[in-house]
Amino acid sequence: MSVNRRKHGSNLRLVLLVLWLVCYVGYCQFENTNDFDNPLVTQMIYRRLFISTAALNQELATKAKFCVKDQDADWKKSFSFSNLDFLSSCNNKTKGNMIKSICTAAEMRFYLNGFLSKTDNKQEYLQPNENCNLTSWVSGCEPGWSCSVDHLTEQEVDLQSKKDFPQRTRNGMPCCEGFFCPRGLTCMIPCPLGSHCPLATLNTTTGVCEPYTYQVPPGQPNHTCGGADVWADVSSNDEVFCSAGYYCPTTTRKVPCGKGHYCRLGSTSEKPCYKLTSCNAGNQNMHALGIMVICGVVIILLIIYNCSDQILTTRERRQAKSREAAVKKAKANQRWKVARTAAKKHVTETNDGETHKMLERGYSSEVDSSSSPASFSAAVQPSFEIEDDAAAGSNERPSGKRGKGHRIKNSQTQILRYAYNQIEKEKAMELENRDPTFSGIVNMATYSEMKKRTLMELSFQDLTLTLKSNGKHLLRCVTGTMKPGRITAVMGPSGAGKTSLLSALAGKAVGCNLSGLILINGKQLSIHSYKKIIGFVPQDDIVHGNLTVEENIWFHAKCRLPAEQSKADKVLVVERRVIDSLGLQAVRSSLVGTVEKRGISGGQRKRVNVGLEMAMEPSILFLDEPTSGLDSASSQLLLKALKHEALEGVNICMVVHQPSYSLFKTFNDLVLLAKGGLTVYHGPVENVEEYFSRLGIIVPERINPPDYYIDVLEGVVTDINSDVGIKELPQRWMLHRGYSVPLDMRNNDNSAVEGPTFVRELLGDVTSNFRLRGEKIRHNFLKTRDLSYRRTPSMWLQYKYFLGRIAKQRMREAKLQATDYLILLLAGACLGSLIKKSDENFGSPGYVYSIIAVSLLCKIAALRSFSLDKLHYWRESAAGMSSLACFLAKDTIDCFNTLVKPLVYLSMFYFFTNPRSTFLDNYIVLVCLVYCVTGIAYALAIFLQPGSAQLFSVLLPVVLTLVATQPKDSEAMKIIADLCYPKWALQAFVIGNAEKYSGVWMITRCGALMKSGYDINKWNLCIMILLLIGVATRKIAFVGMVILQKR
User: Under DSSP, is residue 255 helix (H, G, I), strand (E, B) or coil?
Assistant: First the structure.
């Protein structure tokens, strides 16, 4: 074993000796024979060159941070040469003196500073220096030529030196291939990757050194064309750039692009064309691919919309079938109960008759116990009891519980079955009590399942309402009481203050001075403390037209009924209390309709408007002219439903305009107002004719009393044959009720008061207008203690309900959405086709037009989210629904468009222009831009009227883009430009594209970014600013929505 070790040790020493001899001989041979092609020498030169170019790159990163993102990556893309043949060739050409001809770090820094400080793009020479100046201009100072360090100084060239400027005036010679020699410098700088720097050849005709543009200096016959002379931005000089249609793997070799490939300007390799695209030498035509992408997007959208619509239709159909089955089952059970009750009654009467006959014949003592009426009934009763038990199962309230700690979910069928059984039971009771006897009234009063609301009595004393602007009286000294379980009608001529009285009682009187007392159950409390159980039906039919009747009612029921109320009870409320009572069964699945799209009739729409408030089971219900526009039958149906509400203890107050006699007799109480808001009568309806007859105002025969009284108060009827004048009727009522009469009314003071001057009146109007706005804001932020003790669904649960409703509305607006997408498609195709691609500015003009087009189109579309639903939001917010839930739901649904619309636009624009940046980079920027402009559109829609909002949506993108792209000559302009969102969107687009330009494009990239004032490191900042603007404008819009709402 020791012998083997000794043997291996001698072999190792022999190998090391041979390697040393080879290296020594090779070195001596290299020193003696001047073998400059030796790879070791080339690698040594490359390392020295690496140091020099790294210094250049470091200097660029220091002085031009705005255009260098990753210093190492940019250097590798510019000067990481894989083929070093051009170094070997140059070293042979210079006979080993190549290092002495390469620019040092100081000279490269001098060249870079000259470029960065250059103001004129056409300037092609540097400032004077030690080697090239007015007194010393050697041949190496000419473009395309270089010199080496003077041999007499024997100084070693330090390429890393950033301060020393070596004396380089000897051995002038043409610049090597792969290098460029600027005019005014006597050294060589390596050409970056993506360039083509061959030796120039003289064109004897023009005297130009081609492929460059410089000429041989006159008077120097020994001076020939050299190499490349300048590396600058492509707009001023593109001579060294590798031509489009070719690629340059090295700086000395140019290869034409192969078939199925394309090569852009300054390419180092050829890129394959995508399938279904047509290639030319310099680019690929991606129109076909773009058309395929948009076809795919359109197909996906069609599938989504069609499936969504089909899902809605299928779901409605299934619900209708379940509902019809439950109705049939409930009616069958009710018929069986009626038949069973009749059979029991018949059997009992028969048994009673037979017993009576037997007693008359004297057989009462011999009658067997089995033949007694009790036993006979017991023999018959079991069959009824069995059936009763079978039918009773459908009448049990779905509990949703199974044992302790376990909860199950009731099926829709069980819920509907219970609800409709209850409905049929109530209908049967109404039929029994149509002509009630004393026992029937007792049964109705003691009916255990009759729901009673929170009883609220509304009293008001000396209620006076005066406009703040001009002091005009809308109501004056109105006193009365509205009791629960009764329907009070408020009537009077136009201008009598009927709606003002309703608004004052409901707490909606804004811009007025309110005096007097309003008492709730005898206590002076704020009406806003009970807003969750108070319903207000406005005069206008504010109903969502793109929802069905059932969807409108169900939404209010879900959001406003108690959260702890079971689904079965909610079904009972919606089906029986609203849809069935108001006669909306036939149109329950029909769209309400809008101005453009026909829906249900006007009378049905009016009943739906009332049903929205009935669905929340109010304790007080105010209605502003609910019967206007209804025929007699519809009015009777509405009053019948309100009568049912009154039986449950609801206090109903409604403004009525000239009701029919039969309708008039349906009311319990009447408030009759005269012009000026003065009370003429307030009391039971049955006593009104008696009261006025005592005043000498007798209704003629065949004249409707309310019409006659209104005509009298209006002054249409003058021959009333009464000693009491029309203006004295309010005083007579006050004296009749024992109220105090104001002094001015008592003295009949009608003296005219001199009006204010024009200036004073104008100032008063302006002041009152500001006060009115301030009062509205204070009114909207009014916080009161909730005394209704009704716990409605939480904000997040309401957000869920809003989300479902808005999603349905958007699905039914598929054509409108498709139109938006089609316009975006056309805009992308037109802009992509018309805009000429330019590498000088990295596609900036195309991005400018894209920002304007996308901002304009997306803003106008986003206006619809809030402009068209203001009235609906005001009504829902006044009813106690969450404003935040509504806003978040709309914004969440609009996020779908925020994600899809950029995809639709880019599917045409990107594939028509084919920029160097990736599709994902452009998509991210465009998504953030759409998110930003959508928030701005929300604010415009909320703060402005629809016409003004559309005008600003068109002007803002154009004006802000023009401001953002103007030269920033002053600090003020920079600050203004920073506030414009198009600046950040354009900067993100340009930066994303500029990042893909490297190598020979470095100077072009730095020049373009310096001219625009952009920073390549701020792409993330641009994205964040766009998102922050979107969030900030949404917050502003939400605050405006809360502040400016009308309650």
Answer: strand
**Helices 39-63 and 85-93: crossing angle, nearest 10°?**
110
Task: For residue 690, give every residue at least 6 positions away whose Cβ sits within 8 Å of its Cβ, in sequence order, or none.
Answer: none
Is the CB of residue 474 less than 8 Å from the CB of residue 673? no
- Return the structure tokens found at 667: 């009311």
Chain-centroid distance of CA 388 in Å reads 56
- pLDDT at position 634 is 85
Closest by Cα among 856, 873, 854 to 865: 873
For residue 247, list its beta bridge partners: 255
Provide CB contacts within 8 A for 1026, sequence distance 6+: 925, 928, 929, 931, 932, 981, 984, 985, 988
Contact call for residues 657 and 574 (beta carbons, < 8 A): no
Cα(426)–Cα(448) distance, integer angstroms = 12
Give residue-wise pLDDT tens across range 674-701. 988 899 999 999 999 999 888 888 888 8
Q: Residue 985 has which token pair?
A: 């969107």
Q: How far is CA 336 from the centre of its chain?
A: 55
Q: How many Å apart are CA 609 and CA 337, to the nearest integer? A: 36
Is residue 653 within 8 Å of 622, Cβ to Cβ? Answer: yes
Examine the pLDDT at 10 and tell me if it is beyond 80.
Answer: no
Beta strands 487-491 and 473-482: pairing type? unpaired
Closest CA to 506 of 541, 484, 531: 531
Beta bridge partners of 256: 246
Task: Give which of 614, 533, 621, 544 is closest to 578, Cα–Cα.
Answer: 614
Alpha helices by DSSP H, 702-840: 705-714, 729-737, 743-746, 758-780, 795-812, 814-834
C-alpha 14/C-alpha 258 separation (Å) is 53
First to last CA, the chain: 106
DSSP state of 339: H
- The closest alpha carbon to 930, from 832, 1016, 1037, 1029, belongs to 1029
CA dihedral 623, 532, 602, 593 (to 10 degrees): 160
pLDDT in tens, 157-213: 666 666 777 888 888 888 888 888 888 888 888 888 889 899 888 888 888 888 888
The partner residues of 272 in beta bridges, in order of sequence, read: 261
DSSP secondary structure letter of residue 102: B
Distance, CA of 340 to CA of 323 (rounded, Å): 25
Angle at 686 between CA 522 and CA 454, to 5 degrees: 30
Strand, coil or helix: what is 199?
coil
Task: Give SS3 for 508.
Answer: coil
What is residue 151's predicted lDDT score, i.e. its pLDDT?
60
Q: What is the CA radius of gyration of the chain?
A: 46
Omega before 946 cis (within 30°)?
no
- Residue among 726, 883, 904 at smallest CA distance from 798: 883
Calculated CA dihedral for residues 795, 798, 804, 809, nearest 10 degrees: -100
Q: Are strands 253-256 and 669-674 parallel, antiparallel or unpaired?
A: unpaired
Q: What are the C-alpha distances in Å from 420 to residues 148, 432, 580, 661? A: 105, 18, 11, 34
| Burial of residue 4, with CB atoms counted within 10 A of its CB: 0-12 exposed, 13-18 middle, 19 or more buried | exposed
HSE on the CB side for 890, CA within 13 Å? 23
Token look-up 């629809």 returns 946
User: Has residue 405 got a pLDDT over 90?
Assistant: no
Give burial (CB, 10 Å; 0-12/13-18/19+) of 357.
exposed
One-letter identity of residue 983 = K
Alpha carbons 517 and 464: distance in angstroms, whole number? 9
Tell if the pTM clears 0.70, that is, is over it. Answer: yes
SS3 call for 104: coil
Q: For residue 180, which phi and psi values (nearest 5 degrees)?
A: -130, 145
950-977 exposure pattern, b = at least 16 Cβ within 10 A, e = fewer: bebbeebbeebbeebbeebeeeeeeebb
Contact 626, 542 (CB under 8 A): no
